Amino acid sequence: MSVPDTETRTSVSSALATLKADPATIVKAILWPLAICTMVQRLIILVPDRAKTDDFTAVYTAAVRFLNHKPVYVENYETVSPHYLYPPSGTLLMAPFGFFNPDLARNIFVTLSTIALLIALYIMIRMFGFGLGSAVAPVVLFIAFTSEAVTDTLVFTNFNCFVLLAEVATMALLMKNRALWAGIPLGLALAVKPPMLAVLFLPMLLKRSWRAGLIASIAVPFILLAAGMALAKDKGSFFKRTLPYLFQARDYYNSSIEGNGVAFGLPPWLILLLRVVLGVMTLVSVYLLWRYYRERNELLYLCTTTGLLLTAEFLLGSLGQGYYSMLLFPMLMTIVYRASVMGTWPIWLAVYGFLSYDFWGSQKWLAFGRSASFLKCTYGWTLLLIVPFFVLLYRYLDARAEGRLDEGIDRPLAPAGTGG
Fold first, then answer.
1. Mapping DSSP to helix (H, G, I), strand (E, B) and coil, where does residue 127 land?
2. Which of 58, 111, 339, 406 is the most exposed place for a label (fewest CB within 10 A)?
3. What are phi and psi of 137, to 5 degrees?
4. Tens digits of residue pLDDT in 47-87
5. Are 180 and 345 in contact (CB under 8 A)?
6. pLDDT tens-digit readout, 268-290
7. Can you tell me where the transmembrane regions are (predicted)?
8. Residue 65 CA to chain centroid, in angstroms?
9. 3-class state of residue 7 by DSSP
């Protein structure tokens, strides 16, 4: 039996290659229908069915009381029901929903939230150089709507989609050096959820041309706060009653280290130690990103730095809830870059922890199921701080040992044809 020569084998391989479909075409054919059906199922089944957690009723009640010039901050913080925690500036922005009946107001809010989410995802993929015709678009849409973060935000009817839109709009405008305009969406988000996106102040502060954004991002919430307080019946109640409560670590529906530490009875010194160690790791990672990526890949630097700081805020602060994780989408999107810290499997184990909609409660494995359910998000956020720290530190030590720190800390690509 004769062995085919090299020319014959090459022609056979070329012929077989022409029979294979384009991978991007396959991804689009599979994921567009899956993504759209998942989105529709969330909107027409899960949202109308609602859930035991209802974030919107407290907001709607506050809006109605505000419009009727009644005290807004009258919550009983001893209960575990969702409380109204927005400052007077947020009350002012939410007030128009009080003109409608509760069901219509909720439907309008969910509709606007969905539109805000879709716009945010579109801006994000465009920011990374992709369009709706790319395979990236259905991947992003599918991951978003299968996530616990988006699903619970829509079902619980929370404000998070608007915060995500403000985040990516701010980033997109910063990347176009329209810093003053970038401060407006950031300021609007801070007016409703003050601490959430304040981490964006750091990259604005560190880059001279972005510092103008600080003016608008600080001025907008302060102007709205002054207006809200001027129109409120209980002008100082937010600062006297609600603000102190916000600094307390509650032991329910709280994925932060302190919240879970209190719930599981960890000693205070261990809770503090965990927060300090992870805080130091975060600062080291942020410094290495600033030092070696700020000029080489500004979008990678901005998204990764913001993602790490947000994760630290959720994990190390007094309150971290799983659906905040949608604000980490821009960091996840950096996977398209070779230098991204998202390119290792442990970090996607972290992503599973804080985005997966899987419920780990078990009738057979009661203790394990309970712990896994409560700690899944906490473990995910923790890994999201630990893995980038070691990835960036390894790159730095490797580059220093080889004397190429002046060229950056990423390992150079192997010359073409070397097979390396």
1. helix
2. 406
3. -60, -55
4. 999 888 899 999 999 999 999 999 999 888 888 778 899 99
5. no
6. 999 999 999 999 999 999 999 99
7. 104-124, 130-147, 180-202, 214-232, 269-290, 299-323, 335-357, 378-397
8. 31
9. helix
